[in-house]
Amino acid sequence: MKPARRHEFHRPNRALQLYAVFFMVLLYGPILFIPLFSFSAGLYIRFPIESFTLDWYGRLIGERPVLRALENSLRVGVSVAVVSTCLGVFAAKALVRYRVPGKGPILGFILLPLVVPPIIFGVAMLLMVNALNIPLSLYTIAAGHIIICLPFSIAILMPRFEGYDAAMEEAAADLGENGWWVFWRVTVPIIMPGIVASLLLTFTVSFDEFVMAFFLGGTDLTLPLYIWGQLRIPRNFPVVLALGTLILLFSFALVFLGLRIGRRGAIKLVDRG
Fold first, then answer.
1. What is the crossing angle of helices 188-208 and 64-97, to 10°?
2. Which residue, among 167, 205, 202, 203, has the nearest Cα to 186 in the 3D structure?
3. Cβ distance 82 to 202 under 8 Å?
4. 3-state helix, strand and coil shares in percent for the chain, rounded to the nearest 5
5. Which residues lie across from 40 on neighbouring strands?
6. On the chain, which terminus has fewer CB atoms closer than 10 Å, C or N?
7. Which domains are seen in the chain, by residue range?
8. Tens of pLDDT, residues 233-272
9. SS3 label, residue 40
10. How far lies 246's CA from each of 49, 95, 228, in Å?
């Protein structure tokens, strides 16, 4: 019996390739205008570009409101990434390793923020915060971001728990380790690529999020809120473009690194299996 020729299942599909190229251009083409015009010496977006300059990037260093907003975004992003990943680890372990009654509805409820518009959660959180007389601050923004980021963390970590044999944990327990040390010495090193990927992705989501910060923010502005406020001032628009370019590069690098680390961890689990 002749083995099936594998190349028959991997023939290039020209129509699919053209669709992929068209989709990428339609999705990311407009975004490329942001870094292009961030180097323009003019105040207004128009063609042809008369000359190029780096002055707008230099102005970012001296803008104290920008640095303050950046600091706020970093504080919120790091806190949200750590809390979301910690909660995601325990939630993913419980959903994968244990028989939880109503696991399907519970998982669907946890992943609900992925499909529900953020504006609905923003309004709901604002009503709840006002009802409890909690002042709007970076803490309320972080709480809203955790709701959005937790599903991303669980979605990344669940395949890590499903991808390795639970017998390794049982073997460590048979050797005398208690449940806590089994978790730290066996489970955590195995799922570490997923943890790192979750930290990077949830930080990126929180760093770029606008809707929840708009509803739950007080006097302390995050970077997206600062950019939104500066769009109404024409003379600051080139600086906003320069800032947006840096955010795009930073976000792309974090997402790419997180996905790369997560994929490498999945490949290692497959090789071990």
1. 140
2. 167
3. no
4. 75, 0, 20
5. 52
6. N
7. 13-53 (no CATH), 65-272 (1.10.3720.10)
8. 777 778 778 887 888 888 788 777 766 766 665 555 445 4
9. strand
10. 20, 38, 16
